[in-house]
Design the sequence.
């Protein structure tokens, strides 16, 4: 309960941001940060809790984004309905991919690589199908009305995103204390041992996929409505896949607050590097990458390990 | 849409292009096979090697093929130092840390290149850059024919090295049974660094053979990294001959897929094969079941 | 709580904070009690996949600012100096939008941005929220100016205009030579710019009696062009029309040479390298005779030639990114000059009534309709004797077209 209280207090404080921060720029930075926290947590459900590393999470992000865009542009489906459908498509595609890959017993780096390949397949398909706009991309008509999920006020976008993110973090809070969560951890730590004590690893992993895909899909819906333009590279390219796993791993995988911390630190780092080094192209990214490497060298358990001296995670897995 | 008169040249082109891909994948498969890590910095290291070839040419007039004497040893040293100094220390027994550290390294390397060399596309112009050899009515560019031979020789040499030399045997021992290897007195950290170094050194060979028919920019590695992973999986992680055959298969699939479905959609053939292999034969074409 | 209320008041107070932060830069000006500088946001992809073009754009924008300042700044504002707020979109639309917001908040009187169409859509939209004037530097997708944003102006031509002109010019060149060419193959990259251009070409070409034998799309990057060259060879067209980025163009041109394909013309539309000094210098043989329909300066304009010399003196190539961004900044500065204010509505009104002609482009005075400069047009170039010559329209031409080649 203490963690729930902490979580709700944190999100309540975050909800005040648009009232306090009147700068569009900083609000934008907050949006990018919360967005990272959302996709990082979505990745964390599958990667951190169920132990299935994905390199292709952009797949579910892209499916959600294209779902809301295509339905809206071609069929006139309201984006609020699109939001539900986008999340459902994200979850559905995740389950389908999971069913196919887990059925054939793919684990570890094999699973990671197959998710990457699926994201590429979707990128290529989106690049060649007329109803996704193919290579030209798809543009949602500018219509800044809340009923069309487009807001004049950046704060409203922020609150929409924050609500999605809260739903995601509450789900993970619930996972932490539910039987499903416990089963996920069992599967992560030793799949064969979990199976021996009667855990249906296949079903557990599918459920993790579904939850993970659902929240990635939601993130995709948000992206589409915020920027109103998608192309196959934006939707299914490696950017979102890398960001999701980066945020979660830096923060500390398998922890409730890890992805949030990871998101805050990485965005602070990115902004800070830019302020420090200004306009020399590439210099800011060199600092960013260097700090990343140093963090792994000196903080191997992620940021979350700083707040809790005794991690619940099983340590020292032998590679 | 399939035109029979161009099928033969297309396949032949696929074979030579695929051999080039294989050359890039050889180092990756060695690193994966021994260290069991997915090296995301592989593309960035290829870029570094290409820049070395380019600058040797531009500053000292050294032809790319003569750079074969310099670039692979330099890349080997770089790889050895990276594994010993950074990657090996970052693991702490956790896969995700290796992932993060190789990712971080690739960001650093790419942006350093951007800072130092700017993002201009650089090419080397050689006398043989435009020449071709005719094979049964199909034109094969000379640089690609050379690369094909280079890939085959490199794969065979690596294979011979692993089975015939003491170091090769030590590497195989460490790959199979790390703790046991340590017990019999093998310096595991050294062997890891040697393996990583050799894997990166092979990239140096790839760069010398690739440069005459390609170009270099700070982002050039992106175009090859995914295809190299595909080849590693296809051939069986850790298998050199598998990588060679896998590369050629991918090259041919890409060529024929491009002819049948168009170059954009044709790429899907590569990933379809990748997924099917992972699902039905995850040990790869020539790998052994773990 | 309405947006309008919030925006105006608080932005100003934030601005004060930013000004204090950047005090170091502004200090010398303040000491002499000079007028406050006019800030212009230059948002370009200087890192990531598009970094070459982004860097060129930024260089062009900075040169414009330096030139205007050297000539006395904005005179109607008491000689106020221009000051760049540099932003890096990292080749991503969302970062581009964030950097735009940052520049606007930093007090930018206008934004010059985008380069890529996908990024420009995001930066224009973001600037639109605060009604900040936004000049599109390159971004050729017509949707950028066609979505009803009142703050968006494009100095250069969109790909609709470029494709139409390209086909009309090809027809003219062909007819002048006795119509030897009838068939074409289009080779284009498969993202927004290439696909959009190819689609427009495919609808325009048949109107002038050209038969399209094949349209080949390829991804960026494409590692090998042999396969595409083989397909072109099998189709055996009179004319090859490539529309792709620099690296792919270079590989394609090389491969055409290797596979001994000899069309009557290689006629690019927004060809990544066809009218690039670097390409001509690095591959003189492959470049010889190549035609392009692209952004280009007016070679007969002393102004353009002077700027070209100045750019080359800095060790840079005078590419379309440089002069388009240069002119985008200069156009904005002219509007601010005439508005006599950095008030956004006044600057936008000044842009709408703009008749500016100091651009050294083959455009005539600017004339904006719905944000598009109507006079903007591409020109045709051809590499002849190792030099890039303008061959059309006639009043800007520096050489006569050589067609057919073979």
Sequence:
């Amino acid at each position: 309960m203490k963690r729930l209280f902490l979580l709700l207090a944190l999100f309540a404080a975050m909800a005040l941001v648009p009232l306090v921060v009147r700068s569009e720029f900083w609000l934008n930075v907050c949006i990018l940060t919360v967005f990272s926290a959302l996709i990082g947590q979505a990745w964390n459900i599958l990667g951190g809790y169920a132990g299935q590393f994905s390199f292709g999470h952009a797949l579910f992000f892209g499916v959600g984004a294209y779902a809301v865009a295509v339905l809206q542009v071609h069929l006139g489906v309201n984006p609020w309905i699109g939001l539900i459908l986008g999340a459902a498509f994200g979850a559905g595609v995740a389950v389908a991919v999971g069913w196919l890959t887990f059925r054939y017993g793919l684990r570890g780096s094999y699973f990671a690589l197959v998710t990457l390949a699926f994201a590429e397949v979707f990128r290529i398909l989106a690049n060649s199908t007329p109803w996704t706009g193919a290579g030209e991309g798809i543009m949602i008509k500018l219509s800044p009305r809340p009923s069309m999920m487009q807001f004049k006020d950046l704060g409203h976008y922020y609150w929409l995103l924050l609500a999605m993110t809260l739903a995601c973090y509450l789900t993970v809070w619930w996972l932490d204390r539910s039987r499903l969560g416990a089963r996920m951890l069992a599967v992560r730590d030793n799949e064969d041992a979990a199976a021996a004590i009667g855990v249906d690893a296949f079903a557990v992993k599918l459920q993790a996929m579904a939850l993970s895909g659902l929240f990635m899909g939601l993130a995709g819906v948000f992206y589409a409505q915020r920027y109103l333009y998608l192309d196959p590279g934006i939707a299914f390219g490696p950017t979102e896949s890398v960001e999701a796993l980066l945020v979660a791993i830096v923060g500390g995988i398998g922890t409730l607050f890890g992805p949030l911390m990871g998101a805050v630190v990485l965005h602070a780092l990115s902004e800070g590097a830019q302020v420090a080094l200004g306009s020399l192209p590439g210099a800011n990214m060199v600092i960013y990458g260097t700090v990343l490497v140093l963090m792994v060298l000196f903080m191997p358990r992620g940021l979350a390990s700083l707040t809790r001296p005794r991690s619940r995670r099983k340590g020292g897995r032998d590679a | 849409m399939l035109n029979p008169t161009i099928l033969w040249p297309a396949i032949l082109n696929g074979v030579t292009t695929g051999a080039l891909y294989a050359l890039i994948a050889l180092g990756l498969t060695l690193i994966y096979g021994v260290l069991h890590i997915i090296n995301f910095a592989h593309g960035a290291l290829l870029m570094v090697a290409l820049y070395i070839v380019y600058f040797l040419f531009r500053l000292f007039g050294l032809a790319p093929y003569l750079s074969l004497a310099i670039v692979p040893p330099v890349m080997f040293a770089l790889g050895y130092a990276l594994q010993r100094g950074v990657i090996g220390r970052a693991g702490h027994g956790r896969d995700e840390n290796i992932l993060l550290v190789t990712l971080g390294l690739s960001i650093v390397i790419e942006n350093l290149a951007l800072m130092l060399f700017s993002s201009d596309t650089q090419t080397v112009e050689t006398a043989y850059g435009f020449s071709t050899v005719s094979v049964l009515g199909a034109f094969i560019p000379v640089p690609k024919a050379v690369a094909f031979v280079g890939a085959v020789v490199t794969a065979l040499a690596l294979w011979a090295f692993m089975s015939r030399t003491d170091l090769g045997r030590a590497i195989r021992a460490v790959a199979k049974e790390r703790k046991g290897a340590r017990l019999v007195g093998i310096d595991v950290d050294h062997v890891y660094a040697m393996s990583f170094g050799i894997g990166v050194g092979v990239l140096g060979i790839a760069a010398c053979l690739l440069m005459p028919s390609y170009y270099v920019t700070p982002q050039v590695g992106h175009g090859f990294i995914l295809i190299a992973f595909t080849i590693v999986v296809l051939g069986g992680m850790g298998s050199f001959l598998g990588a060679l055959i896998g590369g050629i298969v991918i090259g041919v699939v890409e060529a024929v897929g491009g002819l049948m479905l168009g170059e954009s959609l044709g790429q899907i053939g590569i990933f379809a094969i990748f997924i099917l292999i992972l699902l039905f034969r995850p040990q790869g074409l020539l790998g052994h079941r773990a | 709580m309405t947006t309008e209320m919030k925006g105006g008041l608080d932005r100003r107070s934030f601005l004060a904070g930013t000004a204090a932060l950047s005090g170091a830069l502004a200090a010398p000006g303040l000491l002499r009690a000079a007028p406050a500088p006019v800030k212009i946001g230059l948002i370009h992809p200087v890192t990531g996949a598009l970094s070459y073009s982004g860097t060129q754009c930024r260089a062009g924008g900075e040169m414009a600012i330096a030139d205007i300042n050297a000539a006395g700044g904005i005179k109607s504002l008491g000689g106020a100096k221009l000051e760049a707020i540099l932003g890096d979109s990292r080749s991503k639309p969302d970062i581009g939008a964030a950097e735009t917001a940052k520049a606007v908040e930093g007090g930018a009187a206008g934004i010059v941005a985008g380069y890529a169409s996908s990024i420009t859509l995001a930066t224009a939209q973001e600037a639109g929220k605060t009604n900040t004037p936004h000049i599109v530097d390159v971004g050729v997708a017509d949707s950028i100016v066609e979505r009803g944003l009142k703050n968006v102006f494009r100095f250069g031509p969109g790909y609709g205009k470029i494709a139409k002109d390209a086909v009309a010019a090809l027809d003219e060149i062909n007819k002048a030579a006795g119509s030897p060419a009838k068939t074409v193959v289009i080779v284009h990259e498969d993202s927004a710019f290439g696909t959009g251009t190819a689609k427009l070409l495919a609808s325009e070409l048949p109107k002038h009696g050209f038969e399209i034998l094949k349209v080949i799309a390829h991804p960026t990057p494409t590692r090998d062009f042999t396969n595409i060259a083989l397909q072109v060879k099998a189709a055996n067209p009179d004319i090859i029309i490539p529309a792709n980025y620099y690296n792919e163009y270079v590989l394609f041109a090389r491969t055409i040479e290797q596979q001994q394909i000899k069309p009557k013309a290689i006629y690019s539309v927004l060809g990544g390298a066809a009218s690039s000094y670097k390409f001509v210098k690095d591959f003189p043989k492959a470049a010889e005779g190549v035609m392009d329909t692209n952004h280009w300066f007016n070679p007969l304009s002393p102004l353009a030639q002077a700027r070209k010399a100045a750019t080359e003196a800095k060790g840079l190539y005078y590419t379309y990114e440089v002069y388009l961004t240069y002119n985008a900044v200069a156009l904005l500065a002219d509007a601010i000059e005439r508005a006599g204010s950095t008030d956004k509505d006044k600057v936008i009104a000044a842009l709408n009534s703009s008749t500016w002609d100091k651009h050294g482009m083959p455009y005539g005075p600017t004339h904006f309709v719905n944000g598009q400069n109507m006079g903007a047009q591409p020109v045709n170039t051809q590499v002849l004797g190792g030099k890039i010559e303008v061959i059309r329209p006639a009043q800007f031409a520096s050489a006569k077209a050589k067609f057919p080649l073979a």
Q: What stands out?
A: The longest helix of chain B spans residues 4-35. Chain B touches chain C at residues 3, 5-6, 9-10, 13-14, 17, 111, 114, 118-121, 123, 125, 129-132, 139, 141, 213-215, 217-220, 222-224, 227, 254-255, 258-259, 262-264, 267 (CB under 8 Å). Chain B has one domain: 4-280.
